[in-house]
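Q: Here's a chain of 131 amino acids. Please give me its 3D structure as tokens.
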Amino acid sequence: MTAPLFASRARVVKPLLAASLALVICGGISAAEGDKPAKEHEKTAAAKVEQATATGTVTAVDTAKHSVTVKEDGSDETNDYRAYFKDGNSKPRLEQISKLKVGDRVTISYTENEGRRIVTLEEAKPVEAKK
């Protein structure tokens, strides 16, 4: 009597396994298809990165982290700016950061990409004393 019981289980298990495998395969294909638009969107978003500019006084320099902290003119807050490595031309900025000293005035063009990333770094003119 046990033989018919195994035979009925096999008839039930095989189709369930086949259906499960088909769902896994179809789910994998649709998930892979779903990734394509996201990657295209990332490329589009990266191409449209906006830049902002800040001018202020250097309050700290961290050459190990490739960052500079700046107190912006007209604000009591400080912001950290890091070298932007994705543009393929970070060496000049790393050199500029290493030459900065606390108290220097700078103008930084930056992007918001995982924090504030330096695009350009220039010496700023001193603030003229109010008369």
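Q: Can you summarize the key feature?
A: The first strand starts at residue 51 and ends at 62.
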